[in-house]
Design brief:
heterodimer; A: about 170 residues; mainly alpha; Rna Polymerase Sigma Factor, Chain: A; Arc Repressor Mutant, subunit A; 2 domains; B: about 210 residues; about 75% helix
């Protein structure tokens, strides 16, 4: 690190390489997801780079590096917890709204409903058919369609809204 | 971006100037000293200062506040240097003089109450006190937060609390030298309680203000 602070680029590259290996080994048990782990290691490397002026030559290097990694790990957990909460709130809102758009209101008009579903764009029609008529769960639909579960829920929700509007228009006519 | 290319990019900017936490602390103290001199020049010191110096309670409080300012400035910068081995008690040491000052005020309040509860009566808000307290909180406080941010605060909540404690301690220290109002209720309500509240606010706001 002393060589680094004097501007030795090769020493710095070697040091960061070693840090990367140590940090990956340290963070792997805490972060299960490979992508998250990679992002976190990169964040730690950037933080080490930003804080390199605070390294005190008379002190050992590892406690300095681990303190930064610890800080970033806590930050990462806080961020992912917040994101998870937001996502859950969003999905439960969707569930609620989906219940509000009650398609069974149009009972007895299955022909009309079928026509409206056919008029939907191909992917949306297929999603509605699978989740609402054929009885697949969002997870099963997501696997078959190669989408994420939340993307399926969002798409179905939008399709149902569109469908409801269309049925209302038809009724008004 | 892969890790390898990130390392290559970062290693191009290896050179850096080290920054000592002592420098951060000294700059913070110097800034508040200059600020105090300016305010002192503008308002003048209290006329009875020489007599008050001989009052042991006054002197003890002054010394405690001075120590609180020095310790909080130094420790707030020291804990902004990442070190997993830094002892936990270090951040608490800075609070000892401030707690001592608070206890001495509470003790004085209790003694006054024992003498006669009528001596403790709410006073009107003193604008001189509030104005200068806020000025110290805003300028030396903000400068100290900036000094900490220039390091790498890995305990931002504690750093924030200590930076605000530094500002309030210097503010109270300055007010003891400038303001002639020594009424114990005033000291308690307009000096001690705001100090405690703003320090807690510093703890809460630290992670946002000192994010890096």
């Amino acid at each position: 690190m002393l060589q680094v602070q004097q501007g030795d680029q090769d020493a710095y590259a070697e040091l960061l390489g070693q840090c990367e290996r140590i940090l990956a080994a340290m963070l792997r048990p805490q972060v299960g997801n490979h992508e998250d782990l990679n992002d976190l290691v990169q964040e730690c490397l950037i933080s080490i780079h930003k804080a390199r002026h605070t390294y005190q030559p008379q002190r050992p290097f590892k406690p300095w590096m681990f303190a930064i990694a610890n800080y970033r790990l806590k930050d990462h957990f806080r961020g992912s917890y917040r994101r998870k909460n937001l996502e859950q709130a969003f999905l439960s809102n969707l569930e609620q709204e989906k219940d509000d758009c009650d398609v069974t209101y149009w009972e007895g008009r299955s022909e009309q409903l079928k026509e409206c579903i056919d008029q939907l764009p191909g992917k949306q029609a297929k999603l509605v058919l699978m989740t609402k008529i054929q009885g697949y769960t969002a997870k099963e639909t997501a696997t078959q369609m190669g989408m994420t579960e939340s993307a399926v829920k969002v798409a179905v929700h939008r399709s149902l809204k569109g469908l409801t509007m269309q049925l209302k228009d038809n009724q008004n006519e | 971006m892969s890790n390898r290319s990130l390392i290559e990019t970062l290693s191009r900017e290896a050179e850096t100037k080290t920054r000592s936490p002592w420098v951060g602390a000294i700059e913070g103290i110097a800034f508040s000293l200059v600020f105090f001199l300016l305010i002192g020049w503008f308002h003048q010191l209290r006329p009875d200062l020489m007599e008050k110096i001989h009052d042991p309670w006054y002197l003890i409080n002054l010394i405690l506040l001075g120590f609180s300012a020095l310790l909080s400035a130094t420790i707030s910068c020291w804990i902004a240097i990442p070190n997993l081995r830094s002892p936990r008690w270090m951040r608490l040491v800075a609070f000892i003089p401030a707690v001592g000052w608070a206890l001495s005020l509470v003790l004085m309040l209790y003694q006054t109450w024992l003498q006669s509860p009528a001596l403790i009566h709410p006073q009107e808000m003193d604008m001189f006190c509030v104005q200068n307290f806020m000025l110290f909180l805003l300028l030396p406080g903000a400068f100290q937060l900036y000094q900490i941010k220039r390091l790498a605060p890995v305990l931002p909540a504690w750093s924030g609390a200590l930076a605000i404690l530094f500002a309030t301690s210097t503010g109270n220290f300055a007010l003891m030298l400038l303001e002639q109002n020594d009424a114990i209720y005033h000291q308690f309500a307009w000096h001690l309680i705001p100090t405690a509240l703003f320090t807690m606010l510093g703890y809460a706001m630290g992670p946002r203000l000192l994010k890096w």
